[in-house]
Amino acid sequence: MISDQVREFLRLGHPLPPQDDDSEEGDEAFEEMTEALHAIEKPVTNEEATLLMECFGDDECFGLAWTLLHIVESAPLPPVTSPPPDGSNVWISRLWLRYQNSMFLERFRELAGDLGRPPELTPHRAIEEWSEFVDDCAEGYEGTLFEYGDDISIRSFLQRVIDDPVIREVPELAWFKKDIQAVDDKFAGLLSRGFEVPGGRGWWERRIPRVAGREMAENVKDHYGHDVEVI
């Protein structure tokens, strides 16, 4: 079903006028299309979204293209779910990229729930937790050995995300891995001066830092026999 508002917008013609069209006719077309586009109520139907996607121009049209994009994305189903052909309109390519990004966040939350992480955990927050833990270790971890094991498990979770088959197919993985690597490098430096410990599936679990708080140092001495320097 096509609403009257969508029909009116389509009637005005498409694509959206370019920003560099400073003619009187271009100004009039822009004003008419702006009024018509803002009259469209969200959510639109899948059929309407398909028709509206044909209205994108080559630039932002003073923000009007973003308004159109958000209207298109309000449809029940994602408007673009496969890679657009080479030479496709930049806004169609942007819809595809945004779909991939949404897949990353959705799958991340699924993994978080499956692995007992808080449902509100985000990719950025997970990396922050890893970074905060590494900073704590650099200053001398103050908790117990049990708490250390619980806190460091965030790195194992991050690895599960990296290795997930769905996540590996989305472009978001590039920045995700890069940000994790920056923290990994810092922690690897700490561990290089630390002690080997048995067990552990990840490199981050096979050694412990050389310095720690008193309680952590005592636990390490009792469990592994290493003399950790107390800070």
What does this molecule look like?
The chain is mainly α and about 230 residues long. It has two domains: about 5-80; about 105-230, no CATH class. The chain contains nine helices and four strands. The protein has helices at about 5-10, 25-40, 45-50, 65-70, 90-115, 125-140, 145-165, 170-190, 215-225; strands at about 195, 205-210, 210, 230. Strands 1-2 form a two-stranded antiparallel sheet. Helix 6 packs antiparallel against helix 7 (about 145-165) and helix 6 runs parallel beside helix 8 (about 170-190). The termini are far apart. The model has no long low-confidence stretch (mean pLDDT about 95).
Q: Which geometry do the CA atoms define?
A: elongated
Sketch the topology as an H/E string, one letter per element: HHHHHHHHEEEHE
The CA-CA distance between the termini, in Å, is: 70 Å
Q: How much helix, percentage-wise, in residues?
A: 55-70%
